[in-house]
Write a structure and sequence with these properties.
The complex is a heterodimer. Chain A is an alpha+beta fold. Chain A has five domains: 3-90, Uridine Diphospho-n-acetylenolpyruvylglucosamine Reductase, domain 2; 97-214, 2-Layer Sandwich (Uridine Diphospho-n-acetylenolpyruvylglucosamine Reductase, domain 3), CATH 3.30.465; 218-327, Alpha-Beta Plaits, CATH 3.30.70; 333-407, Alpha-Beta Plaits (2-Layer Sandwich), CATH 3.30.70; 423-478, no CATH class. In chain A, 34% of the residues lie in helices and 20% in strands. In chain A, strands 12, 13, 14, 15, 16, 17, 18 and 19 form an eight-stranded antiparallel β-sheet that branches. In chain A, strands 5-6-10-8-9 form a five-stranded antiparallel β-sheet. A four-stranded mixed β-sheet of chain A has the order 1-2-4-3. In chain A, helix 13 packs antiparallel against helix 14 (390-407). In chain A, 58% of the residues are buried. By secondary structure, chain B is of the alpha+beta class. Chain B has three domains: 1-206 and 386-414, Uridine Diphospho-n-acetylenolpyruvylglucosamine Reductase, domain 3 (2-Layer Sandwich), CATH 3.30.465.10; 209-281, 2-Layer Sandwich (Alpha-Beta Plaits); 297-378, Ribosomal protein S10 (Alpha-Beta Plaits), CATH 3.30.70. In chain B, 31% of the residues lie in helices and 23% in strands. Chain B has helices spanning 3-14, 41-53, 106-114, 131-137, 144-147, 150-153, 182-186, 220-231, 260-274, 308-322, 346-362, 374-378, 389-399, and strands at residues 18-20, 34-36, 58-61, 78-81, 88-92, 97-101, 118-119, 154-160, 166-170, 195-202, 204-205, 209-217, 239-244, 250-258, 279-281, 297-302, 327-331, 335-340, 367-371. In chain B, the strands form four sheets. An eight-stranded antiparallel β-sheet of chain B has the order 15-12-14-13-17-18-16-19. Chain B has a five-stranded antiparallel β-sheet with strand order 5-6-10-8-9. In chain B, strand 17 and strand 18 (335-340) form a beta hairpin. In chain B, helix 8 (220-231) runs antiparallel to helix 10 (308-322). Chain B is globular and about 70 Å long. The two termini of chain B are 27 Å apart. The chains are: A alpha+beta, B alpha+beta. Chains A and B meet through strand 9, helix 7, helix 8, helix 10 and helix 16 of A and helix 2, strand 9, helix 7, strand 11 and helix 9 of B. Bound molecules: flavin-adenine dinucleotide.
Amino acid sequence: MDTVRLAARLREEIGQANVLTDRQELRTYECDGLAVYKVMPALVALPETTEQVAAVVRACVDAGVPYVARGSGTGLSGGALPHADGVLIVTSKLRQILDVDPDNQRAVLEPGVVNLDITRAASPHGYYYAPDPSSQQICSIGGNVAENSGGAHCLKYGFTTNHVTGLEVVSPDGAVVRLGGKAPDPPGYDLRGAFVGSEGTLGIATEVTVRLVRAPESVRTLLAAFGSTDDAGAAVSSIIGAGVIPAAIEMMDALAIEAAEAAVQCGYPAGAGAVLVVELDGPAAEVEEQFVQVERHCELAGAFEIRIAADDVERALIWRGRKSAFAAVGRISPDYIVQDGVIPRTSLPGVLRRMGELSAERGLRVANVFHAGDGNLHPLVLFDDTVAGQTEKAEDLSAAILDLCIEHGGSITGEHGVGMDKAKHMPRMYSDDDLDTMQLLRCAFDPEHLSNPGKVFPTPRLCGEVPGRHKGAHPLQQQGLAEVF
Amino acid sequence: MPADAVLDDLTKVTDDRVREARPDDAIDGMPSRYVATPASTEETAELLRVAARHGLHVVARGSGTKQRWGNPPAQVDLVVETTAMTGVVEHAAGDLITVVRAGTPVRELQDALSGADQQLALDTAIPSATVGGTVATDTSGPRRLLYGTMRDLLIGITFVRADGVVAKAGGKVVKNVAGYDFGKLLTGSFGTLGVITEVALRLHPVPATQRVVSVEEEDPAAATRAALRVLGSQVVPAAVEVDQPTDGPVTVAVLLEGIEAGVGARTAATRTLLGAGNTVGEPPGWFGTYPFSADDVGLKITSTLMGVGPVLAGARSVGRRHGVPVSVRGSAGGVLYASMPSDTEPQLVALVLEAMRTVAATYDGTVVVLTAPAETRRGLDVWGPVAGLDLMRRLKDQLDPDHRLSPGRFVGGI
Ligand SMILES: Cc1cc2nc3c(=O)[nH]c(=O)nc-3n(C[C@H](O)[C@H](O)[C@H](O)COP(=O)(O)OP(=O)(O)OC[C@H]3O[C@@H](n4cnc5c(N)ncnc54)[C@H](O)[C@@H]3O)c2cc1C
């Protein structure tokens, strides 16, 4: 690739200051939140408008150069890992909240807007933006859209995909396309739904319209300490079995508690084998009654201490331990892998037991933090890179945990995405036909594979067929994977 | 190729569950040649492979309640009925999910779930509709306000492509971001991307108590104001429905669901919000039904919340102007259905449609003609303008390059 020529064109299109080629400056962007993978991009572009994003994409198309979108770079699957010969398109200069519209319960945002800023802008009107990843103080709405991010409150309120009603997208041919808007149910295929969670492989979101949710009348939060994760899990089962859907139920095991304690002194009850953070929200009378039920379920399941947040300050304190858990693990281990897998919630006790065996077999510790309501586990595999062989063992253990999730009918990722990191695991969850079918969508949007290539799918599909003129053998037939008539 | 050779090949797959089509097997007036009723995903796949080999145009049919929605197919050679693929494959009550075969009537699914006090939190106006048909047409009802629509409840899908390849996406856990969300693409695809054979669905507990607070308002503007007061409040209604007959008062009905203690307090709050003349009771008879019957003209009109009042008022004034009785019903969340009698002059339907499209577009919305007598529909652009059509066509070309699945029924002639 002729970087110099491409840089010159980009400077013309989006301005001198918005194109970076200096190695020192590029280094800032060589990895996302999954720092084990590092690649220096050829160029970084910092467009300021949709038109500039489209101009950068068209320049890439003309030069046949791949490009990767990047929001805040907090992704944990290497989704925003640059391409060495490509352009990294960073949305940090697209940070305007374009419209806060409480009358229609919507907000319209540029892709670089930070998740928490949406709620900040909406709260004076009595509204908030529901999906709340733990990284919400930094991650961007564009990144949330790409990853279909979740958060603690997604058990009741759903994920990013349930809250995005419209998108403006620069498609991989450089066209600006609108998918949905403020009104519900736009006619046609739900391309907006398919774009959410597509991890930057179907183009770049340049504007996002989200639902704003009316702030609840009442919020009650408790922290319950149990002797073991089994007891805590039993409490979760009986709460859900009673038909209560809390806003959030989060669990941490002893090791995760220890880490959080070391990092943020959250003061969780000493000696707990597991804690649950349970939050209920909604109309006051409803919440009061159900909160009493939740307390009772916790007690019956063996909680030895229950703390109830008296106000927002105490609530924040309870949440602090949970929200800092990933980074906190750094306090008790030199290195760690954040895993993200999903199991049917009811398989929790068996899965945790097996995970204990797997970690004992390899002599490594696993701290567990999870969204207990929906079975989304975040096992943190602790290791020391300076000890010979430990990194490999940790990776092996981490992969074995994913296998365990798949065995139980779950998923290899609940919210962090496939990205670079888990593309190789996709065939464990889906058949070749499934993956081939998914890639047909990719071919519809990006037949040249320029938008974030090498992510999500282990092997790219050729999109050679000219639409409507399907001739010759199907690629699956050629590979011997499908029956030939 | 003689026709019986095709029948022979189809018979090899489904034995006696294939036959020559009768006149009443016509899909929206378009006669078919064969009808097959596969009993499994695998059989469906084999059938579609035979269809691919013979270049047959295929339309999937559940219980057939919405075959006159959208445009008639341009050609039909084979009707694939899903009605032999029925039953709940799995109901994991503790995980609040179910896996169900596409031909299962929604009502049967709900019955099966009710034993565990659980439900698919989606209203179906026509309860004989199958699960697969409900996914393919993306229908929803009053409680969409709280629970969302099929796209929010569907967590996994198995479908058969035009070339007979079986594909799965999603899974059976509620939280899962591995791979593209094909369930979203199949939802509302009207049979143009594949034949859906099995879906996994997220469930909700059946609420202990339901109560409806209703009020009759003098005109659309007053009704909308009442509805918006509730929508902007903290009572968390499961539904806020409006019913606007051709003339006379407009009713607003608010559905509250939950535990007894909570619903009591929320009912009181809702009564205050709705103001004088409100009543508390069971859902009214019209609740969750379309304002049109099978032969009428039925429109689906969407808008922002602020557009609901103008849509209601617009329907009345346009109806009066053209002398057409137009009634409207639906969610104050911005999804309304309008009805005109079956014998309305096609030109008048076209005028009303155009006027309503203008109103809806002002509020970011659209108007789709869900159903209408065949001769009326022929002259109409039933789907209206669609953003992103170019990408939709490219998607169709990838999944069904020869355009053999329900050709012509969907947006932009897809
Ligand atoms: C401490 C910590 C806690 C976290 N907690 C959670 C959590 O609770 N829940 C959760 O779901 N995730 C969590 N994450 C993961 C991460 O924050 C989310 O995936 C987030 O959505 C990424 O946003 P970002 O702006 O940082 O995106 P980036 O990391 O910059 O990019 C992520 C992906 O999005 C693509 N992308 C970015 N912008 C666009 C755009 N405009 N258009 C198209 N594609 C784009 C990129 O190409 C890449 O594939 C956590 C991460 C950290 C570090």
